[in-house]
């Protein structure tokens, strides 16, 4: 009988601890707001979500960096590509280019920002839609005429 009570109690304690640790403090929100508004931040990607495929956990090292008027990406690509790169080392989504059509709008619920921009690189044109939330989590959607869309989940890097 005791075992039947211990399991639900420990499960409840786990959920309470998980929910309490996910609260975002005003200090964290202020740091994230400053980074986003200064157009100077880095996002470390944790997961890739191809259009046709499974959710893929990423090892460290994949990121998107926004600095002033430019974006720098080192991301993997999983999915259908309609054209192959000339050089096998050109796979993935890699660029270091100026951004065009950059726009930022706050979410309606005031829980983050929508950032959209385009990249014209030698490997193609990318349309990027980035959502940054107050807790530092992010989603990045990358669209291209030459590949299926892919989405990445990550975290805004803080010092």
How would you describe this protein?
By secondary structure, this protein is an alpha+beta fold. The protein has one domain (24-156): Lipocalin (Beta Barrel), CATH 2.40.128. Helices cover 20% and strands 48% of the residues. It has helices spanning 2-21, 26-37; strands at 40-50, 56-57, 63-67, 70-75, 93-106, 112-121, 124-133, 137-144, 147-156. Strands 1-3-4-5-6-7-8-9 form an eight-stranded antiparallel barrel. Strand 1 (40-50) and strand 2 form a beta hairpin. The protein is globular. The N and C termini lie far apart (49 Å). Residues 9-21 have low confidence and may be disordered.
CATH topology: Lipocalin
Number of domains: 1
- Helix-strand category: alpha+beta
Mean pLDDT: 84
- CATH architecture annotation name: Beta Barrel
Question: What is the CATH C-level name?
Answer: Mainly Beta
- Termini Cα gap: 49 Å
Fraction in helix:
10-25%
Extract low-pLDDT stretches.
9-21
Spatial strand sequence of the major β-sheet: 1-3-4-5-6-7-8-9
Write a brief structural summary.
The chain is of the alpha+beta class.
Q: What is this structure's SSE topology?
A:
Layout: H1 2-21, H2 26-37, E1 40-50, E2 56-57, E3 63-67, E4 70-75, E5 93-106, E6 112-121, E7 124-133, E8 137-144, E9 147-156
Antiparallel strand pairs: 1-2, 1-3, 1-9, 3-4, 4-5, 5-6, 6-7, 7-8, 8-9
Which descriptors would you attach to this protein?
single chain, 159 residues, alpha+beta, Lipocalin, eight-stranded antiparallel beta barrel, 2 helices, 9 strands, 20% helix, 48% strand, globular
């Amino acid at each position: 009988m005791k075992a039947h009570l211990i399991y639900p109690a420990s499960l409840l304690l786990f959920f309470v601890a998980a929910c309490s640790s996910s609260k975002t403090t005003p200090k964290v929100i202020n740091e994230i707001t400053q980074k986003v508004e200064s157009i100077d931040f880095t996002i470390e990607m944790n997961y890739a979500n191809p259009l046709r495929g499974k959710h893929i956990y990423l090892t460290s090292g994949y990121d998107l960096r926004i600095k002033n008027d430019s974006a720098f990406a080192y991301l993997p690509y999983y999915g259908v590509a309609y054209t192959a790169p000339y050089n096998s080392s050109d796979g993935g989504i890699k660029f270091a280019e100026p951004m065009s059509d950059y726009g930022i709008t706050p979410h309606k619920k005031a829980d983050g920002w929508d950032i959209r921009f385009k990249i014209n690189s030698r490997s193609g044109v990318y349309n990027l839609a980035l959502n940054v939330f107050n807790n530092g989590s992010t989603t990045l959607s990358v669209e291209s005429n030459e590949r299926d869309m892919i989405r990445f989940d990550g975290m805004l890097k803080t010092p």
